[in-house]
Amino acid sequence: MYQEKIEELQNYFKSHCKMKEYSGHSSKVHSVGWSCDGKRLASGSFDKSVCIYTLDRDRLNKEITFKGHGGSVDQLCWHQSHSDLLSTASGDKSVRIWDTRIQKCVATINTKGENINITWSPNGNSIAVGNKEDLVTFIDARTHKIEAEEQFNFEVNEISWNNTSDLFFLTNGQGCVHILSYPELKRQHILKAHPGTCICIEFDPTGKYFATGSADALVSLWDINELACQRVFTRMDWPVRTISFSYDGQLLASASEDLIIDIGFVETGDKIADISVEAATFTVAWHPSMYFLAYACDDKDAYDRKRDAGSLKVWGFPSD
């Protein structure tokens, strides 16, 4: 049933496997993400800045560098329907909202600790940010006021709303996914997802699945309605740090300290392609309407910091 589609995708990437590299930062890129209209790519870095690139058919052009954070920009998240708005979480104990139209920061929200992850609800109303002490702060995205704070007694790794913004998901250090109602924040379910730490979580744009990546090197695919594990992707050898679904929900990219990024077919788990990398990869993001994958790797060489430091890459361009 899926064999033709699998072969078609495998063949597509045989002729669309060119990678382009862009350097906009002076040190490691922690997070990359596309605006909802796919016209811009943002990167957040250890150098405290955010770079915005515009996509012009087959290349990126650097548009602006946002400065203002006093610490590393650890994660960023665009508004899911307003293509100009971007939120960032930083170790400087703040969240910032940036507007690419006026090219500046439109809000700074001070929080209690060093922030490491951020997510914007798909309906645009709320931003959640998690810090190193496992406190999650919920911010009203329109008034920029803190609506709620929730302290968890376990290691919170990644946070995300479902596509309808009425459930809030957290992955934790015990290999579980906690599911809370939103905005009430009442516990609905706890899924025992992995034997090892559950690191990352992503929702498929079609609303059918979510996936989790874990320290046991596995990616699990879950049916969102049944909360049942459908299949497991097992091609990685190292903890899975980052995952991303393609715009059509057909492909799942996974990355880790393995020197490949794996691209699998969601419905069967078959391998569609892989991308060779020279260092651990901590962030991947599929474009919202095309088969372009943005990613950023760790600095290749601890002794020679200049090489590959602060660059991001986009893969999927037509091969020459």
UniProtKB/TrEMBL annotation:
<feature type="repeat" description="WD">
    <location>
        <begin position="191"/>
        <end position="232"/>
    </location>
</feature>
<dbReference type="GO" id="GO:0006406">
    <property type="term" value="P:mRNA export from nucleus"/>
</dbReference>
<dbReference type="Pfam" id="PF25174">
    <property type="entry name" value="Beta-prop_THOC3"/>
</dbReference>
<dbReference type="InterPro" id="IPR001680">
    <property type="entry name" value="WD40_rpt"/>
</dbReference>
<feature type="repeat" description="WD">
    <location>
        <begin position="66"/>
        <end position="108"/>
    </location>
</feature>
<keyword id="KW-0677">Repeat</keyword>
<dbReference type="InterPro" id="IPR040132">
    <property type="entry name" value="Tex1/THOC3"/>
</dbReference>
<protein>
    <recommendedName>
        <fullName>THO complex subunit 3</fullName>
    </recommendedName>
</protein>
<keyword id="KW-0853">WD repeat</keyword>
<feature type="repeat" description="WD">
    <location>
        <begin position="22"/>
        <end position="63"/>
    </location>
</feature>
<dbReference type="InterPro" id="IPR019775">
    <property type="entry name" value="WD40_repeat_CS"/>
</dbReference>
<dbReference type="GO" id="GO:0000445">
    <property type="term" value="C:THO complex part of transcription export complex"/>
</dbReference>
